[in-house]
C-alpha cells in the first residue's frame, strides 16, 4: 500500500490510448463537460484548477513539515478545504451551530479547528492489533470518539493537525492508512466481510482487493478524478457489499462455460440524484478483475464530467452513454480485448449483514454484532481487542451495514464470547430495530448536516423495541425493516434504498416560533442484499414529513399498518409501493 507522500502532480494531459485500440469518441457537446479526452485538460472551475496546480497527494509533506508545527492557523485555505481530503481529513462542525444555519454560513463559519480523520479499511479486514491501535489513537488524540461507517471505515473526531503525523506513524506501523480515504480519488474498496471464510462463498475477492490497493491507492495517475470513485467486490451469495450503489462493483457468479468469476456493474450512486448501478452483461474472469477495475476508473478519469461538480460522478456519464457504449469503450480503448457475456447474480438467499452466529468453512464460527447505528468509542475498541484476544481470536471485519464480524471463534467459546460482547454494547442477537437501523454522522460533527442523527437513532431503537415488542414476540414482524437516518439530503446513510429512509430537514412550526428538526420520509427502498427481490429506490410521498420527536411514534404506526394490511408474505417494500398514500401518512 502506498503511504509515503507522492511527489508527482496530477497529469497535465490524459494518458495515451492503448496502442492499436480503436478510439471511440462521443460527439462534442455544445457546451463542454470538461472531459479530458473530448474537451482537453484546461480546467473549467476552481476545483479543477487547484487539483492540476498541485495534486492532493502532495499536501502530506506540508502537513508533516509545516502545519503540524504551525497549528491550524498556519494551514493554507486551499489545502484545508481541498487537498487535506486526499489524506482522510475534513474539518468538523463547530459545536452550537443550529441546523437552520447550515445552508447560510460559509465553510469557515461552520468549521471548527478540529478534524474528522477517516481510517481506510479496504475489504473491512482488521486484526486485533490494528483495532487496538485505532482505540489507542481515539483515546489519546480523538477524545474517545470512533464511528463505524457504512463504507467499512472507522472515523475519529476532535483530531488536531499537530497530532496527525504521529497518528499516521502509528497507523502505518500496523498496515493501516488514511491515504485517499476522502477526495476525488478511488475511495475504500468494499469487500465481503466473509471473504475467505464462508462455506458458501463463490470466490474470495481478497487477492483482487489487495492488488488494487497496492497498485493504485496513492498512485498519482488516479489521484485526480472528477469526483469520488466507489468500488465494491464480493464473492458471497448474499451480495453483501451494496453493489448497486457503487461506481464499479464485481459480484461473484458462476458462468455455465467459464466457471467462477464476476458480474460487472457500473454507475451506481445516491445523494440528491440517486441512480442504481447497471449490469454491463460482461463476465470478468478473476485474472482480469484488476484490469477491469482500472479500466473503469480510467474511463471516469478521462471521460467523466468535470465542468460542474454536481454532474461529476460516473452515473451521469453512464446515463448519457448507456451500457452498450460504456462496455464498448472499456473493451476497445482500455482493455484491448472483449469480455464474454455472462449471467446475472442469483437472488440473494438471505440478508447480507452477517449478524448472529454462523459456521465458517473450517468448522469455527463467526459472530456478527450490532452497535447502535455504528456508534462506538475508543475505550470500547480497546476492550473489544482484549476480549477477543482472551479467546484466541485475532481477526475481525467491518461491514457496509455498520456492523462488526468476529472471526475464528471456537464453537465451545461462542456463548461466553457473546455474553462478553453484550457487556460491551455489541449484540449478536439484536432486536430487529437495532439490527436494521443505520445513521450518518449528523449535525454533531458534519458541516453539511441539518439535524442530529446518532442520538435520534438510539432513541428510536430504544422506543421501538418497547412499542413493537408484541409484533416481534408473536412473529407478526417476520422480516427486517431497515430504518436509515440521514442528517441532510446527501444520503450518506442510503435513505433511498431503505424500507424507511429519513432525510434531515428543518420543519416549520405550525404554531409559529423556531423550526423543528425533522425528516422527509422515503418508504419502500431496498437492495438485492436486503432480502427483497430486486433493488429499487424508495417512494416519496409529497408532504410526508415527521419531526425528530415524533419519529418513533410514526414508525410504530407505519409498521403496525403494514402488519395489519400486508398481503400474505408481502415484503415491506412491496407493500409500501402498493398501498394508498393514506396508509403511509398514518402519523399525520
Describe this structure in words.
This protein is α+β, with helices and mostly antiparallel strands and 588 residues long. The chain is built from 19 helices and 20 strands. The strands form four sheets. A five-stranded antiparallel sheet has the order 1-2-5-4-13. It has a five-stranded antiparallel sheet with strand order 3-14-15-12-11. Strand 14 and strand 15 (404-409) form a beta hairpin. The longest helix is centred in the middle third of the chain and has 15 residues, at 289-303. The relative contact order is 0.10. Mean pLDDT is 93; it is low at 1-22.
Name some characteristics of this structure:
588 residues, alpha+beta, single chain, 5-stranded antiparallel beta sheet
Helix and strand topology:
Blueprint: H1 36-39, H2 46-53, H3 59-70, H4 77-81, E1 89-93, H5 107-110, E2 111-119, E3 125-127, H6 128-141, E4 145-148, E5 154-159, H7 164-173, E6 186-191, H8 206-216, E7 229-234, E8 248-255, E9 259-266, E10 278-284, H9 289-303, H10 314-321, H11 323-335, E11 356-359, E12 365-369, E13 375-377, H12 378-390, E14 395-398, E15 404-409, H13 414-423, H14 432-435, E16 437-439, H15 454-467, H16 469-473, E17 483-486, E18 500-507, E19 516-523, E20 539-547, H17 551-565, H18 572-578, H19 581-584
Parallel strand pairs: 6-7, 7-8, 16-17, 17-18
Antiparallel strand pairs: 1-2, 2-5, 3-14, 4-5, 4-13, 8-9, 9-10, 11-12, 12-15, 14-15, 18-19, 19-20
Helix pairs in contact: 6-12, 8-9, 9-11, 15-17
Amino acid at each position: 500500500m502506498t503511504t509515503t507522500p507522492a511527489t508527482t502532480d496530477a497529469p497535465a494531459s490524459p494518458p495515451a490510448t492503448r496502442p492499436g485500440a480503436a478510439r471511440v469518441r462521443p460527439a462534442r457537446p455544445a457546451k463542454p463537460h470538461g472531459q479530458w479526452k473530448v474537451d482537453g485538460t484546461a480546467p473549467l472551475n476552481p476545483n479543477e484548477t487547484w487539483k492540476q496546480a498541485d495534486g492532493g497527494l502532495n499536501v502530506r509533506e506540508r502537513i508533516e513539515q509545516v502545519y503540524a508545527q504551525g497549528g491550524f492557523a498556519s494551514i493554507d485555505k486551499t489545502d484545508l478545504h481541498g487537498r487535506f481530503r486526499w489524506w482522510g481529513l475534513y474539518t468538523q462542525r463547530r459545536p452550537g451551530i443550529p441546523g437552520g444555519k447550515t445552508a447560510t454560513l460559509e465553510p469557515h463559519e461552520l468549521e471548527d479547528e478540529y478534524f474528522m480523520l477517516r481510517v481506510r479499511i479496504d475489504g473491512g479486514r482488521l486484526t486485533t492489533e490494528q483495532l487496538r491501535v485505532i482505540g489507542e489513537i481515539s483515546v489519546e488524540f480523538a477524545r474517545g470518539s470512533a464511528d463505524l461507517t457504512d463504507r467499512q471505515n472507522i472515523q475519529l473526531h476532535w483530531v488536531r493537525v499537530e497530532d496527525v503525523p504521529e497518528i499516521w506513524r502509528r497507523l502505518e506501523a500496523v498496515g493501516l492508512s488514511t491515504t485517499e480515504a476522502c477526495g476525488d480519488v478511488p475511495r475504500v474498496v468494499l469487500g465481503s466481510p466473509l471473504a475467505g471464510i464462508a462455506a458458501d462463498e463463490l470466490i474470495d475477492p481478497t487477492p483482487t482487493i489487495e492488488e488494487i490497493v497496492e497498485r493504485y491507492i496513492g498512485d498519482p495517475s488516479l489521484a485526480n478524478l472528477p469526483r469520488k470513485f466507489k468500488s465494491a467486490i464480493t464473492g458471497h451469495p448474499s451480495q453483501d457489499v451494496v453493489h448497486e450503489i457503487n461506481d464499479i462493483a464485481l459480484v461473484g457468479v458462476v458462468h455455465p462455460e467459464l466457471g467462477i468469476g464476476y458480474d460487472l456493474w457500473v454507475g451506481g450512486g445516491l445523494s440528491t440524484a440517486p441512480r442504481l448501478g447497471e449490469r454491463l452483461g460482461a463476465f470478468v474472469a478473476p485474472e482480469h478483475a484488476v484490469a477491469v477495475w482500472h479500466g473503469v476508473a480510467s474511463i471516469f478519469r478521462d471521460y467523466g464530467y468535470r465542468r460542474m461538480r454536481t454532474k461529476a460522478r460516473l452515473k451521469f456519464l453512464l446515463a448519457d452513454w448507456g451500457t452498450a457504449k460504456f462496455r464498448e469503450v472499456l473493451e476497445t480503448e482500455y482493455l484491448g480485448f472483449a469480455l464474454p457475456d455472462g449471467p446475472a447474480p442469483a437472488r440473494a438467499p438471505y440478508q447480507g449483514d452477517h449478524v448472529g452466529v454462523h459456521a465458517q468453512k473450517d468448522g469455527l464460527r463467526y459472530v456478527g454484532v450490532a452497535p447502535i447505528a455504528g456508534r462506538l468509542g475508543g475505550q470500547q475498541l480497546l476492550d473489544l481487542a482484549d476480549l477477543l484476544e482472551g479467546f484466541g481470536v485475532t481477526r475481525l471485519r467491518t461491514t457496509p451495514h455498520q456492523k462488526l464480524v468476529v472471526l475464528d471463534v471456537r464453537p465451545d467459546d461462542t456463548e461466553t464470547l457473546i455474553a462478553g460482547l453484550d457487556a460491551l454494547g455489541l449484540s449478536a442477537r439484536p432486536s430487529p430495530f437495532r439490527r436494521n437501523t443505520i445513521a450518518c454522522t449528523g449535525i454533531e460533527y458534519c458541516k453539511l448536516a441539518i439535524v442530529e442523527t446518532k442520538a435520534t437513532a438510539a432513541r428510536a431503537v430504544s422506543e421501538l423495541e418497547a412499542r413493537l415488542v408484541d409484533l416481534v414476540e408473536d412473529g407478526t414482524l417476520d422480516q427486517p425493516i431497515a430504518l436509515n437516518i440521514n442528517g441532510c439530503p446527501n444520503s450518506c446513510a442510503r435513505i433511498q434504498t431503505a424500507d424507511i429512509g429519513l432525510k434531515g430537514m428543518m420543519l416549520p412550526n405550525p404554531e409559529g416560533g423556531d423550526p423543528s428538526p425533522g425528516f422527509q420520509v422515503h418508504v419502500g427502498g431496498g437492495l438485492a442484499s436486503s432480502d427483497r427481490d430486486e433493488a429499487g429506490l424508495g417512494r416519496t410521498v409529497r408532504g410526508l414529513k415527521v419531526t425528530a420527536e415524533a419519529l418513533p411514534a410514526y414508525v410504530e404506526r407505519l409498521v403496525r399498518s403494514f402488519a395489519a394490511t400486508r398481503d400474505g408474505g408481502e415484503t415491506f417494500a412491496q407493500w409500501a409501493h402498493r398501498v394508498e398514500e393514506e396508509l403511509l401518512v398514518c402519523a399525520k
